[in-house]
Amino acid sequence: MEKFPEFELENQNGEKIGNKDLEGKTVIYFYPKDNTPGCTAQACDLRDNLDYLNELDVKVYGVSGDSRKKHQNFIEKNNLNFDLLVDEDFKLSEALNVYRMKKVFGKESKGIVRTTFIVDEDSNILKRWDNVKAKSHIDELKTYLKEEA
Known about the structure:
- The chain has five helices and nine strands.
- The chain is of the alpha/beta class.
- It has one domain (8-148): Glutaredoxin, CATH 3.40.30.
- The strands form three sheets. The protein has a five-stranded mixed β-sheet. Strands 1-2 form a two-stranded antiparallel ribbon.
- The model has no long low-confidence stretch (mean pLDDT 95).
């Protein structure tokens, strides 16, 4: 089984989160940028379904290259109820091959490709979704988790 790389990133409050914090199942989702329409829709879907996920003992972390300050603003603005992790140097994103060349509005540039992982407490990757669609992904996630519960 593929392993999630060793990591330790700061959350929006400067607390270090890493493999030691993985319990049960953890959703770790990578998204391009705070306060953009798709990323906001995805984060709000997770926020609105967090009680359901918590009932299944699932934790959620979002990861982007944005700063702690931007994460704090994004959380406050959208009443998010889970941690956002800072990957400003894109080391974790690169290790998972989610930071790569992509086309946005016809322009090619390097950035985070929307990707979601479900990881267990031993850092095993149970499921990976690439090129996630922000608006419908919560349904895929819930279906998978319900079947695996």
